[in-house]
Write a structure and sequence with these properties.
about 180 residues; alpha+beta; six-stranded antiparallel β-sheet; three-stranded antiparallel β-sheet; 9 strands; about 30% helix; about 25% strand; globular
Amino acid sequence: MKKNYKFMIEPQNIITETTMALIPYYTDTANLHCQMVGKYGDINIQESPLHILKESCLFYGCDFDGSLQSSRKILEGQKILPIMVSVEFEYCMIPLSSPMKKDCTWIAFQHINRIIPDGENSIILFKNQDMLEVNITKSSIDSRINKASRLVCTYHFRRKMVKDLRNGNLTVAEDLRDYEDT
């Protein structure tokens, strides 16, 4: 009797639901690499965090520049914007410095439990109880979390609106006000 097996191979250089952070580091030879901090362990990747983000966006059907432009449109006038790596799966990454810097540290919005102040630094406590000390204030991180929350909610409401329209649940134009960006 012939058996069929299905193997699920998850690319190690793509952001998934278990990715908690992308931390840059330089090797002894001054090459920029990335430590992908995961819920179940870490992976060292011989690429920059920005490269990982760009590849992950492409993997999920968008591109980094388009995602950044969308964030700019939704979060008009804001700086240091979060990126939706996957709208469908709501993977949103928060930069801890300028997102255009190759050595920017990125934190996964969905894994943050709370931020503990530590003077001018902060400790990010993830939902699995892992901790990451960063050199940014709690108020700065809180501001970035709020931006990410608004971005994720905007996409969530947009997807709901499309679903409702397809199902014929929105028949009156006034109902669309529930989905307007604020």
